[in-house]
Design brief:
This protein is of the alpha/beta class. It has 2 domains: 194 residues, Type I PLP-dependent aspartate aminotransferase-like (Major domain) (Aspartate Aminotransferase, domain 2, 3-Layer(aba) Sandwich), CATH 3.40.640.10; 125 residues, Aspartate Aminotransferase, domain 1. Helices cover 42% and strands 15% of the residues. The protein contains 11 helices and 11 strands. Helix 9 crosses helix 10. It is globular and about 65 Å long. This is alanine transaminase. Its cofactor is pyridoxal 5'-phosphate.
């Protein structure tokens, strides 16, 4: 809906992170706009540098593209980083100065696994800086498919739209009204997530036990997989600070890259296919999300049941060691 609202022609661009969740590039293409990529910095834990945003904005403008909005995914997908508060303030300031709509994908806000990081919504950050609805158009996205509830089958999502004039908000409601509403169970679930049990409610204690149990288990799974990847030859993996994914970098032997080229596929896709065929483990090639040219990655979820993680790690290690031996330069 927001892409439909923002994009008028191929001369309108949307700044999106690379690596990115492919929904963004797909929806931009669907509505006839231009993707303006900005690269996250793997060396700083997938940091979002405002200098990089300015560089890509200016390059797009030099090509005649009017950049309309900035997409920020926090915590990151597929990269799993959590933005620092000071970094968020710089991003808000950038959008304010450049007249951009800030599209804040915050669907993993419950999934934080490190003690030195906390989730701060962009709306909270903007208000703490003294900006009101009159200063910054901001859209926050949330979903029933993520978080600690992870109800992927229910297909419920919602957004908060702030900083838009009454006329524009009316158009958003018109676009929404064209569509049929989501199924009833999805609507009920969305309302429950927006209004969870509160202290004093009959179900509060059992709710908190289940919530904390799920999130602490996800944190243990993330740490176990991160440590396993970093123990292997030719793989480096940044810390999983949040979300549900790891995005390790693989340094493939030249022979493996050659085999992939001979098979007519990207090297990381070749690796992922071989892994699937050998073990049944599914990862998504980094080339599906975008990455710095010449680097190779894959996205791995932390969602398998905790008691299955050791077996997955064992199978993965066995495959990787054999793969590296097979293609050793």
């Amino acid at each position: 809906m927001m892409m439909q609202l923002l994009i008028r022609s191929e001369n309108d661009g949307i700044l999106c992170p690379i690596p990115q969740y492919p929904l963004y590039s797909a929806s931009i293409a669907l509505h006839g706009g231009s993707l303006v990529p900005y690269f996250l910095d793997e060396e700083t834990g997938w940091g979002l540098e405002v200098d990089e945003l300015k560089k890509q904005l200016e390059e797009a403008q030099s090509k005649g593209i009017t950049v309309r909005a900035l997409v920020v995914i926090n915590p990151g997908n597929p990269t799993g980083q959590v933005l620092a508060e000071e970094n968020q303030k710089k991003i808000v300031e950038f959008c304010k100065n450049e007249g951009l709509v800030l599209l804040a994908d915050e669907v993993y806000q419950e999934n934080i696994y490190v003690e030195d990081k906390k989730f701060h919504s962009f709306k909270k950050i903007a208000r703490s800086m003294g900006y009101t609805d009159d200063d910054l158009p901001l859209v926050s996205f949330q979903s029933v498919s993520k978080g600690y509830y992870g109800e992927c089958g229910k297909r419920g999502g919602y957004m908060e739209v702030t900083g838009f004039s009454a006329d524009v908000r009316e158009q958003i409601y018109k676009v929404a009204s064209v569509n049929l509403c989501s199924n009833v169970s999805g609507q009920i679930l969305a309302s429950l997530i927006m209004n969870p049990p509160k202290a004093g409610d009959e179900s509060y204690e059992s709710f908190m036990v289940e919530k904390d149990g799920i999130l602490s288990s996800l944190a243990r799974r993330a740490k176990a997989l991160e440590e396993a990847f970093n123990s292997l030859e030719g793989i480096t993996c940044n810390k999983a600070e949040g979300a549900m994914y790891l995005f390790p970098r693989i340094y493939l032997p030249q022979k493996a890259i050659g085999a992939a080229q001979a098979a007519g596929t990207a090297p990381d896709a070749y690796y992922a296919r071989r892994l699937l065929e050998a073990t049944g483990i599914v990862v998504v090639p980094g080339s599906g999300f975008g990455q710095v040219p010449g680097t190779w990655h894959f996205r791995c979820t932390i969602l398998p049941q905790e008691d299955k993680i050791p077996a997955i790690i064992s199978k993965f290690k066995e495959f990787h060691e054999k793969f590296m031996d097979e293609f050793r330069d």
